[in-house]
Write a structure and sequence with these properties.
The chain is an alpha+beta fold and 197 residues long. The protein has 6 helices and 8 strands.
Length: 197
C-alpha cells in the first residue's frame, strides 16, 4: 500500500537587496562599497573597513597601511550612511618601525573634542638609539603635553584628519626631537568612544 505523501512547507525566499554605503561628509560622502542583505535591520551598526588608499585614490606608503573603520548609522532608501569610528595601521607596518638598539614607547590617551566626543589615541614613538629611563620619562611627559594641548582644540572629524594624515604625529615628533633624536612617531590606532543602543 502506498504511503501518503507528506506535504512540504515551502518557505518563501527573502529577497536580498543591495545598499550603497557612503562615507561621512568629512570624506566627501564617497561611496565605500555595497552591501547586500534581506533584512535592512541587520545593517545597523555594521562595521565597514576601508583602506585609506581606496578612499583617497592616492598610492603612498601611509595610505597602503592605514585602514579606516566606518559604522553604518542610518539607512535611507537603498543608501547606508556611516560614521568614522577609528583607524589602525597594519601590524606588518608597525613591525618595520621597531628595530634593535632603539627604544619604543607606547602611549594611550583619551582626548576630548570640542563637539563633545572622546577618542582613544594609541601612539608609538621610536627613538634612533636606546635611551635612559630619565629620557623616557621626559619623552612621555612631552607626548602627554602635546596630546593634552590637542584635547578640546578640534572637532571630532578635524582631530581624526589631523591623526590620519599625520599632522598631529608630526607635531609630536617635532617636540620629541628637541629632547632626543627620533626615528618615527605614528598613531597606530584610534577608537571613538561610542554609545551603542
Amino acid at each position: 500500500m502506498a504511503k501518503p505523501r507528506k506535504s512540504r512547507k515551502t518557505e518563501k525566499k527573502k529577497i536580498k537587496n543591495w545598499y550603497a554605503v557612503l562615507a561621512p561628509q568629512a570624506f566627501d560622502s564617497k561611496e565605500l562599497g555595497e552591501v547586500i542583505t534581506s533584512d535592512e535591520a541587520k545593517l545597523a551598526n555594521r562595521i565597514i573597513p576601508v583602506s585609506l588608499m581606496d578612499l583617497t585614490g592616492k598610492m603612498s606608503q601611509a595610505n597602503m597601511y592605514t585602514t579606516l573603520n566606518f559604522r553604518i548609522k542610518d539607512i535611507k532608501g537603498k543608501t547606508a550612511y556611516t560614521e568614522l569610528i577609528g583607524h589602525k595601521l597594519s601590524p606588518g607596518y608597525i613591525r618595520t618601525l621597531v628595530r634593535r638598539r632603539r627604544t619604543v614607547l607606547h602611549t594611550v590617551k583619551d582626548v576630548s573634542t570640542n563637539d563633545e566626543r572622546t577618542v582613544r589615541l594609541k601612539l608609538i614613538s621610536v627613538t634612533k638609539d636606546r635611551i635612559s629611563e630619565t629620557m623616557r620619562k621626559n619623552l612621555r611627559e612631552a607626548i602627554d603635553a602635546e596630546l593634552t594641548e590637542a584635547s578640546g582644540k578640534y572637532g571630532y572629524y578635524e582631530l581624526m584628519q589631523e591623526v590620519i594624515y599625520g599632522k598631529l604625529a608630526s607635531k609630536v615628533f617635532n617636540r620629541l626631537k628637541q629632547i632626543t633624536p627620533m626615528n618615527r612617531v605614528e598613531f597606530r590606532k584610534t577608537e571613538l568612544k561610542e554609545n551603542l543602543e
